[in-house]
Amino acid sequence: MAASPLAVPSVAVIVGTAAALLSITSFAPQIVKIVREKDASSVSLRTYVVTVAGFSCWLAYGLMIKAWPVAAANLACLAMSAAVLALKWRYGRQGDGKDVKG
Known about the structure:
The protein has one domain: Monooxygenase, CATH 1.20.1280.290. The protein is an all-alpha fold. It is 72% helix and 0% strand. α1 (7-25) runs parallel beside α4 (68-91), α2 (28-37) packs parallel to α4 and α3 (45-64) packs antiparallel against α4 (68-91). The protein has helices at residues 7-25, 28-37, 45-64, 68-91. The protein is built from four helices and no strands.
């Protein structure tokens, strides 16, 4: 039996919403840990620089094709990953003389 045309967009919307929410919230535990411990020495600076760049590109892409859900989800992910990056710069050093190269 073939699926109705309305079922496919509904499933796609549910999957897309779940993907966005999971992606956005995936950064929360890292942010909470850094803020509580005031230590970001174990966070990779390079990883988060690339992550922020990637979400910036996804945001630009979403805006260019006028896909507002894509743009909104990636804006939120960009904000969360940028927060981790900012915390890395703030708490990356632990008084051991090492710099924040990560």
